[in-house]
Amino acid sequence: MLDLFDDVPKPDIDWYPNCLTPAVAADSLRQLTDEVAWRQDWINTPRGRIPLPRLTAWQGDPDVVYVYSGIVNMPARWTPTVLALRRIVERVAVTRFNSVLLNRYRHGKDGMGWHADDEASLGQQPIIGSLSLGAARTFELRHNATGVMHRLRLTSGSLLVMRGRTQAEWKHRVPKAAGLAAERLNLTFRWIEPTQRTAAGRA
Ligand SMILES: O=C(O)CCC(=O)C(=O)O
């Protein structure tokens, strides 16, 4: 049958609504709230220096430094719950990750603006494994060339995998959610090319 919507652009994504059971998702949320060293980052804007509307943390293998929006993220060591979740996400996404950006949306006033995870250090066609815990939030993808939008409801325990040309051709965001009091954690697992290290005493 002719599908009238066949030519609507679609991002290269897979969504697993039940990647974690509700019990594992609830335990992970509790553990990560305490286990992770959450920090408040600030960015420079035309209106001056402002705090990011969320808390963040960066964990990864020792050489994996990630720079975005002028923020240099030196990797903290993998903590036990994050490592266990990484193994699950690697199995489902059938890939390896060496780092994770953790985002803590304390309430509906926290969010994330339009952007793509397209830094050169992520490679040409990055695979991003994005795991959600806690309050469900809307996730929007907007096609660069046409403005076509797709919306997903990222529920607790769900995994969104973005692949292929998704970062090159689309932007994504988590809009603010008026009146929402509950917290959400999001873990975006990534593969970053490790920085070149020069061993002491060698040219
Ligand atoms: O919180 C989310 O679902 C998205 C996070 C995100 O876009 C990012 O870390 O780049």
From TrEMBL:
Alphabetized InterPro entries for the sequence: AlkB-like, AlkB-like_sf, ALKBH3, Oxoglu/Fe-dep_dioxygenase_dom
GO-annotated biological processes: DNA alkylation repair
Molecular function as annotated in GO: dioxygenase activity
Residue ranges of domain Fe2OG dioxygenase in the record: 96-193
Annotated PROSITE patterns: FE2OG_OXY
Annotated coiled-coil segments of the chain: none
Keyword annotations from UniProtKB, A to Z: Dioxygenase, Oxidoreductase
Gene3D superfamilies reported for this sequence: Alpha-ketoglutarate-dependent dioxygenase AlkB-like (2.60.120.590)
Protein name: DNA-N1-methyladenine dioxygenase
Naturally occurring in which organism (per UniProt): Mycetohabitans endofungorum
